[in-house]
Design a protein that fits this description.
Layout: H1 2-22, E1 24-37, E2 43-48, E3 55-56, E4 61-65, H2 68-82, H3 85-109, H4 115-154, E5 157-159, E6 164-169, E7 176-177, E8 183-198, E9 210-215, E10 223-230, E11 240-247, E12 259-264
Antiparallel strand pairs: 1-8, 1-12, 2-4, 2-7, 3-6, 4-5, 6-8, 8-11, 9-10, 9-12, 10-11
Amino acid sequence: MLYKIITIVGLILVSAIALSSERKYECMIEPKTVVELGSAAQGVIESVSADRGQKVKKDEVIAKLVSNVEKAAVEVARAKVNGTAQQESAKIRKLFSERKYKRALDLSNKDHISVYELDEARTEMFLAEQALAEADEYLILAKAELKQAEALMDLKVIKSPIGGVVINRYMEPGERVENDPIIQVAQINPLYVEVLLPIEMLGKIKLGITGSVSSERKNGKNYMASVVAIDPVVNAASGFFGVRLSLPNPDLRIISGLECEIEFLSESPN
């Protein structure tokens, strides 16, 4: 009797292990994004501040091109914007011409000056107003030139569009950049877990459900990931469809590029 009980318990354990293993699927841990950073402008590299294995923040400067000409253009444009002599002079001239015309109008009403002198004062006032308008337009143009010069200089500064880790450095200071990438950066927080599931799982896996991920270097720890994308089309040849999960990696301890196993902790009923 005891033998039979042990046998039954053994069969139950074997069945439980089999069921558990059937719920585990092979997967791959990958970076969320991998970008190769180049330059929008051609030129010679002045400096590269990031190297392989180094963490970079979003919008951090990772390389600069030689930009002496662009810097000089910015300084010239900034001097034009900050130079107020022309505008101040036009304002003073306008105020003076307005006062002169007002005096001339009063004298004309008393028949103390000729119509010609009154017209001359009025014309001087109009010309002063026009000079001030031209000075204002010049300032607007100078500000636009400054923005253009700064934009051209910004093209010589390469920033990382993502936060992540440098995985490749292709070029060094002194080399000429045309269309080649300078640095390759991978975003590894969060990571993506890619898994292929059999067609029988279609409809059971929904967005937002969680899965327990264990990698070949998990050190006894499982990680929780959530489903963020499900392929709407099944591969007819294999009978599998793809599922992507997002795996938080705030301390960057989880290594990408590793094979893994995943067990979904919750599934939708048929």
